[in-house]
């Protein structure tokens, strides 16, 4: 039976999900998407994602692929898929996979954005879309401290204790911290991320920005390689999977943020 590999861009509000991956008796993005696509395909569908997100984490552009046994117009996957999806998940683009494309293993880099609402009062409208911090944050100090993390490092101090990755080594390509009004934004890209890595980095940078820890704390944590000595795990509410970068050979649009990538950025194995 001939199969066609279909690639999708997907956005979702993670506040109503137990995470990306199937969970017994809990609502997951994967399950929701597979059930919607199965109705269009008229057969069971299994979707593979570029990076699994935790409970409460959002996606501006998750990239997934699946094998279709039935022939459908690309617009039919988009229209039919979205018509069967709840309001908190949307397919934003669809294309046929080129060559040996794989949503996870072909990825060269992932980009995450962490948004902190930095004001005395919580937001009634953004309560599940941002992380609230009432302590005034110095975004400039956070940015400077974050630069220690760029490069290839052992990120043991920034991984969850239950992280199942075989290696704590990751290549961090860039981290930018900046303020937009009452929001402090952390933009971060690496070849791949450990479990809770972005949230643990955000927790460390927030303590530095609030003056609770010195500027060199990021370097110290890299050196000690111990999660027990690290900072808090920041909440999931402000975390977004922003985009995934692939070789141009696969024909997937390159997000402008990836112009910052070093020329030697390569796929994580």
Structure explained in plain terms:
The chain has helices at about 30-40, 75-85, 140-145, 195-210, 215-225; strands at about 5-10, 50, 60-70, 90-95, 110-120, 130-135, 150-155, 170-180, 185-190, 240-245. With about 270 residues, the chain is α+β, with helices and mostly antiparallel strands. Strands 1, 2, 3, 4, 5, 6, 7, 8, 9 and 10 form a 10-stranded mixed beta sheet that branches. The model has no long low-confidence stretch (mean pLDDT about 95).
Uncertain ranges: none
> How would you characterize the largest beta sheet?
10 strands, mixed
Instruction: Please state roughly what percent of the residues sit in beta strands, choosing from under 5%, 5-15%, 15-25%, 25-35%, 35-45% or over 45%.
Output: 25-35%
Assign the CATH topology of the largest domain.
Answer: Alpha-Beta Plaits
Structural class: alpha+beta
The gyration radius over C-alpha positions equals 19 Å
Distance between the termini: 31 Å
- The CATH superfamily of the largest domain appears as Pseudouridine synthase I, catalytic domain, C-terminal subdomain
Number of helical segments with 4 or more residues: 5
Overall, the morphology is: globular
Tell me the name of the CATH class of the largest domain.
Alpha Beta
The number of domains: 2
Mean pLDDT: 94
Task: Using the 3D structure, state the CATH architecture of the largest domain.
Answer: 2-Layer Sandwich
- Write down the secondary-structure element order: EHEEHEEEHEEEHHE
Helix content range:
10-25%
Number of strands: 10
């Amino acid at each position: 039976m001939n199969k066609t590999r279909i690639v999708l861009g997907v956005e979702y509000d993670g506040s109503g999900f137990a995470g990306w991956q199937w969970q017994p008796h809990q609502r997951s993005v994967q399950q929701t998407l597979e059930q919607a696509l199965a109705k269009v395909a008229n057969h069971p569908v299994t979707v593979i994602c570029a990076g699994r997100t935790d409970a409460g984490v959002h996606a501006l552009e998750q990239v997934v692929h699946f094998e279709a046994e039935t022939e459908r117009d690309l617009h039919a996957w988009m229209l039919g898929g979205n018509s069967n999806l709840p309001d908190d998940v949307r397919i934003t683009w669809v294309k046929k996979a080129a060559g040996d494309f794989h949503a996870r293993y072909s990825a060269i880099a992932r980009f995450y954005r962490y948004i902190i609402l930095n004001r005395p009062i919580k937001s009634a409208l953004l309560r599940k879309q941002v992380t609230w911090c009432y302590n005034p944050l110095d975004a400039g100090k956070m940015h400077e401290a974050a630069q220690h993390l760029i490069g290839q490092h052992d990120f043991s101090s920034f991984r969850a204790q239950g992280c199942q990755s075989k290696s704590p080594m990751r290549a961090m390509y860039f981290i930018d911290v900046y303020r937009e009004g009452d929001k402090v934004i952390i933009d971060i890209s690496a070849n791949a991320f450990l479990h809770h890595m972005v949230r643990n980095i955000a927790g460390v940078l927030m303590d530095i920005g609030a003056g609770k820890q010195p500027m060199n704390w990021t370097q110290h944590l890299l050196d000690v390689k111990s999660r027990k000595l690290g900072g808090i795990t920041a909440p999931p509410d402000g975390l977004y999977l922003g985009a995934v970068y692939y070789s141009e050979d696969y024909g997937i649009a390159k997000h402008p943020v990836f112009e910052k990538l070093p020329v030697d950025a390569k796929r994580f194995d």
